[in-house]
Fold this sequence. Notes:
Helices cover about 35% and strands about 20% of the residues. The chain is α/β, with parallel strands linked by helices. It has one domain (about 1-185): 3-Layer(aba) Sandwich (Rossmann fold), CATH 3.40.50.1470. Strands 2-3-4-1-5-7-6 form a 7-stranded mixed beta sheet, sandwiched between helices. Helix 1 (about 20-30) crosses helix 5 (about 150-175) and helix 5 packs antiparallel against helix 6 (about 175-185).
Amino acid sequence: MKYLIVGLGNPGVKYENTRHNIGFKVLDHFLKDLEDPWRVDKLGDVSTIKFKGRTLVFLKPSTFMNLSGKAVNYWMQKEKIGIDNVLVITDDIALPFGKLRLKGKGSDGGHNGLKDIIATLNSQNFARLRFGVGSEFSKGRQVDYVLGEWSVEENETIKERMDVCCEIIKGFSTIGLQQTMNNWNNK
């Protein structure tokens, strides 16, 4: 079985350590023990690994956040991966910092990356792992906040939260969405 694990973010050094790039950061964390895991390919950086008899295709779209659907659709078609085997990892300002929520479907929740994926795939029925980045911004400053870098306090906590994200990815690809949600949501 094949799975497409998509981390949402924006390409480039300018965005590397921003809250909006937590999807990229989680994938990098998952693959941290591999030497040079990423290859530049069409519409993104891609890495493929075997895990417990499954093939996991990791994707960091190079299309910028708000146009992520094109890259997701391309790699689903290229790798012949059905929508039930797609997991998108994204930031979420509606969740407190570090809170993780795995869902099997849903709206875009105001997230432009998810909005583009939903529009491109013409479906909301794909799994998404939302990583809470908090909402510590004043009115009208949302963009500055998500494109801002992590605070010192957040950086101290983020590794443990990314470890949990890695366990969620492993669970999604082995025991399935429902059991993984039961095991990890609200923890």
